[in-house]
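Forgive a beginner's question, but would it be possible to get any protein sequence you like and the tokens describing how it folds?
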Amino acid sequence: MWQGVLELEHISTDDNFFSIGGHSIKTITIANLIYKVLGVQISMIDFLECNTIVELADGNNSEKIEIEKQGRSQYRIN
């Protein structure tokens, strides 16, 4: 999701969303995609407090997002 919205080929689960080109509109876009695909709501506050994929997965969200490593560098979010 992040790769598509940020138009980047490679993103690490530890990359800071805002350091790699994210901004408020893209935050809303990704939050909507996460909700549509996973049924999990991510707020703007969640993104400000947890701005890497790993932090979002381990973050203070009431619903936990699990990240499963597939292969060497690909991750699937559950």
